[in-house]
Amino acid sequence: MHKDVKEILYTQEEITQKCKELGKTIMNDYHDKDLVMVGLLKGSVPFLAELSKFVNLDVTFDYMDVSSYEGVESRTITIKKDLDQDVNGKHILLVEDILDTGKTLSTVRAMLIERGAASVEIVTMLDKKEGREFPIEAKYSGYEIPNAFVVGFGLDFNEKYRNLPYVGILKEECYQ
Of 47, 71, 112, 135, whose CB count within 10 A is highest? Predict the structure, then answer.
């Protein structure tokens, strides 16, 4: 365990098992649809990579780089990289590492609906309902987590800890 991590919440093996379960449900729901899995950079990359192993469908991937955090503070939504493809008429599955306040996902979801997507749903590895400030829910959710600052498996604090192969709670002295 990394020296800055207080506790491991989910191991790599547990995350992989959860991705298998989510993948099966997603395949059942989208077996006859034109699905685009949209990863929100950078945190979603490990989760998208693991989840997509278990979605045995003809899907396309795209990415958006949308930022609303600096340190532990949620700020204004900024789109640093937009999608490369037109979403009109397509079924979009937003892939996110964590659904916290809901600010980013609410904004992105509304934008893609406005662009004519046939549907826009969310799959998140972690759901922090205690932090929710916007009325949005994930259709597919891996784990509900407590109101703690988590890192690993794509989740970061100031761009560090993304590479940890598990999700853990960051020690408070690291971010205060």
Answer: 47
